[in-house]
């Protein structure tokens, strides 16, 4: 379908009387992003316009002159769809459709459409359906003949009954309640999976970032997974978890989450909270940034704001977060070198290219260092009846040396964190025939 993108730039008056933009994002970057969102669902964007709005109209948002100007463009380009990169009230959407004689959707509707196309799991489908119904519930403002009052009671004496619009809203609410119950079951299942993962305590590393920052490409690079990774907004939606081994042999679980975006609809934040809770459970968060995007600083602020809404404050983020400056392969050589040097001098930043692999080894080493905590060195001798602990040891400790003894026991030189050292002591001490003298520090 041929589509036109309209980016309203609202102005607000400061107390000093000077005019300033109500948004921190540049209009050009907003237009580029909105166009990318439209192209993500195979729309043919034939025109894009940045429209200054000094005085937002309650009925149409835009002024009369701009509405007529856009209508002429629609007729000229034969465009039957207008995407307005701004929230529209139901009344504004209806009035603009009448003025332009075209279908009109706002930013929220566009993102919902993309998520509906991308959802592939049952959980993702339920979340998108729930968000879409909550969005539609407030938009039953059409005035077709089927909205005439239905007759209640029997014969000619019945009252006016309920309007069709009330019946539609009731049906929507029933469907919403049903979806919420199904989603609650999915949430319980996800919680059970988390509980099982805690019993086999592999650390969890979560990838977060603005959409199209390269999370899925990085995920594939370091896990060897085949997650869809394309140069488009919201190429992947459903969360993916994979086990991976760090350079020293330790196993961790890597989680790829849905990309964030500015002005993420509240319906989606609420619906996807169960998915985003994977981030809350993570031991380490990798904030992937597209450093080739001129607007990456504003994108980073949007991501940090959403993390804050989830309950991860600045102090906690500083302890649990690594910034991954991605797509450095797209930078000019002098900019590339300066950025790599700047990242090397920071304590929580790693510069990488998920496409070429540059910097990925450094990132893996930093993940190992951050997850290891305070490392302790120990030497243990596993008796024959404790050899079942070997897989656990190779997953949770760094094995520096191994000696197979004549009596069938194994002596290991290990490095492991204090937490895992305590867990090892518990595992060796709990089983039968495991006197403490069988192992030594």
TrEMBL record:
Residues reported in the UniProt entry to bind GTP: 209-216, 234-238, 256-259, 326-329
Compartments where found: Cytoplasm
Positions of the Hflx-type G domain: 203-375
Record keywords: Coiled coil, Cytoplasm, GTP-binding, Magnesium, Metal-binding, Nucleotide-binding
Biased composition (Polar residues): 15-26
Cofactor: Mg(2+)
Gene3D superfamilies named in the record: 6.10.250.2860, GTPase HflX, N-terminal domain, P-loop containing nucleotide triphosphate hydrolases
Ranges in coiled-coil conformation: 162-196
GO cellular component entries: cytoplasm
InterPro entries documented for this protein: G_HFLX_dom, GTP-bd, GTP-bd_M, GTPase_HflX, GTPase_HflX_N, GTPase_HflX_N_sf, HflX_C, P-loop_NTPase
MF annotations from Gene Ontology: GTP binding; GTPase activity; metal ion binding; ribosome binding
Domain of life: Bacteria
Residues involved in Mg(2+) binding: 216, 236
Database matches in PROSITE patterns: G_HFLX
Pfam families linked to this entry: GTP-bdg_M (PF16360), GTP-bdg_N (PF13167), HflX_C (PF19275), MMR_HSR1 (PF01926)
Quaternary structure and partners: Monomer. Associates with the 50S ribosomal subunit.
Function: GTPase that associates with the 50S ribosomal subunit and may have a role during protein synthesis or ribosome biogenesis.
NCBIfam families: GTP_HflX
Family, as annotated: Belongs to the TRAFAC class OBG-HflX-like GTPase superfamily. HflX GTPase family.
Official protein name in the record: GTPase HflX
């Amino acid at each position: 379908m041929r589509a036109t993108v309209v980016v309203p730039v609202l102005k607000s008056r400061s107390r000093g009387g000077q005019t300033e933009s109500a948004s921190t994002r540049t209009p050009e970057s907003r237009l580029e992003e909105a166009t990318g969102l439209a192209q993500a669902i195979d729309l043919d964007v034939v025109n894009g316009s940045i429209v200054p709005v000094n005085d937002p109209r309650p009925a149409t948002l835009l002024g009369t002159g701009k509405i007529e100007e856009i209508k002429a463009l629609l007729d000229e380009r034969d465009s039957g769809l207008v995407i307005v990169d701004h929230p529209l009230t139901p009344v504004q959407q209806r009035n603009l459709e009448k003025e332009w004689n075209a279908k009109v959707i706002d930013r929220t509707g566009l993102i919902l459409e993309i998520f509906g196309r991308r959802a592939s799991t049952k959980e993702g489908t339920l979340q998108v359906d729930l968000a879409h119904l909550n969005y539609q519930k407030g938009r039953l403002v059409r005035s077709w003949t089927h909205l005439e009052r239905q007759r209640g009671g029997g014969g000619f004496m019945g009252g006016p009954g309920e309007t069709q619009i009330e019946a539609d809203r009731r049906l929507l609410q029933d469907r919403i309640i049903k979806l919420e119950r199904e989603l609650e079951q999915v949430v319980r299942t996800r919680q059970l999976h988390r509980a099982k993962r805690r019993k086999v305590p592999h650390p969890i590393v979560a990838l977060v970032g603005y959409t199209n920052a390269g999370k899925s490409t990085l995920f594939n690079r370091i896990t060897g997974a085949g997650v869809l990774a394309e140069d488009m907004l919201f190429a992947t939606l459903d969360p993916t978890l994979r086990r991976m081994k760090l350079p020293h042999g330790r196993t961790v679980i890597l989680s790829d989450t849905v990309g964030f975006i500015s002005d993420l609809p509240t319906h989606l934040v609420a619906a996807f909270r169960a998915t985003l809770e994977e981030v809350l459970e993570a031991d380490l968060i990798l904030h992937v940034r597209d450093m080739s995007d001129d607007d990456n600083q504003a994108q980073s602020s949007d991501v940090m704001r959403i993390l804050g809404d989830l309950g991860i404050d600045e102090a906690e983020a500083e302890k649990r977060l690594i910034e991954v400056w991605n797509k450095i392969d797209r930078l000019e050589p002098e900019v590339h070198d300066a950025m790599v040097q700047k990242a090397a001098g920071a304590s929580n930043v790693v510069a990488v290219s998920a496409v070429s692999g540059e910097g990925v080894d450094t990132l893996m080493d930093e993940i190992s260092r951050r997850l290891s905590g305070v490392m302790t060195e120990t030497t243990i001798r596993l008796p024959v009846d404790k050899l079942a602990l070997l897989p656990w040891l190779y997953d949770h400790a760094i094995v520096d040396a191994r000696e197979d003894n004549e009596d069938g026991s194994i002596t290991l030189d290990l490095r492991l964190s204090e937490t895992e050292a305590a867990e090892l002591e518990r595992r060796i001490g709990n089983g039968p025939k495991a006197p403490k003298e069988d192992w030594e520090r």
